[in-house]
Amino acid sequence: MQTVVVLNQDQMGHGDRALGQKILGTFLKKSIALPGFDTIVLFNAGVKLVAADSPVLGELRALEERGIDLVPCGTCLQHFGITPAVGKVGDMDAIVRELGQAQKVITL
User: Does residue 27 register a pLDDT over 70?
Assistant: First the structure.
């Protein structure tokens, strides 16, 4: 089963930012156990997570090394002035294609 994780913000949940970033890091470390997990799409503030100063860059690198595709939105990267340290820049066509092919989508 193809599972896609959507990151549309730079933390997990709403509220305390430091807590949200901490639990997102934990989720990313443990997410490799998701059945069929093969893609993370990132858009809006979620693209901040692929920046060189991201608090979860290590976790994203580890996932990418294990074969998980990281697809940050190019328009969003440009908007925030971010050069990605991980992932392959995509556009909305790529994001829609990934979501359309997924059997399960998890949005954080």
Answer: yes
